[in-house]
Amino acid sequence: MSSSPLVHVVDDDDSLRTAVVRLLTAAGLEVRAYASAGDFLLHPLPQGPGCLLLDLRMPGPSGLELQRALKNLGATLPVIFFTAHADVACSVEAMKAGAVDFLMKPVEPQVLLDAVHRGLERDRLLRAARADAQDLRARFALLTQREREVFDLVVAGKLNKQIADELGIAERTVKAQRAQLMTKLGAESAAELGRLAERLQRLPEGPQDAR
């Protein structure tokens, strides 16, 4: 799988679609074009980095319907709408559903390029956040049950002796397990363990699919 971002362009206007592809390609971007939302959905959902440049009104499913379908499928590809036909209700729905931008045709080339780059940057940040979450979960998965118990008590502010008394183990055992869990988590202090605990609490319940 290529690591280069791929811009997906969905528009039923052949001449406009060709012009947009040329513009993006000239800007050094990789592009894949589709004549309809249905055509886009016939292909496997994008797994690599990128964004979606999407017309609003097309034969078959509309741009908004494609946006909803992608959301239902768990895809996180950032969407940029560009259309010649829109109203306030459509633009509000698109933005509430997470669209990066909502552009009216005709659009200045630089405005379009800027919107695409914002979409690619959002995708990069989303992927970085997912990778960070997966790394954090993987590190916590290395802890034994006892190490997790010690971890919880350390971040609760308990001293080694208090932890030993609460768990019914020797203080030297607490020290050893504390050292082991800090090594596994890549932490150097109790304060850093506390920050890791806060980050873990903010994570979604399960790993996100990195589409």
UniProtKB/TrEMBL annotation:
Superkingdom assignment: Bacteria
One GO BP annotation of this record: phosphorelay signal transduction system
Pfam families found in the cross-reference section: GerE (PF00196), Response_reg (PF00072)
Signal peptide: none
Domain Response regulatory: 6-120
A GO MF term: DNA binding
Domain named HTH luxR-type: residues: 136-201
Tagged with keyword Coiled coil: no
Residues with 4-aspartylphosphate modification: D55
Keywords: DNA-binding, Phosphoprotein, Transcription, Transcription regulation
This protein's name: Response regulator receiver protein
Taxonomic path: Bacteria, Pseudomonadati, Pseudomonadota, Alphaproteobacteria, Hyphomicrobiales
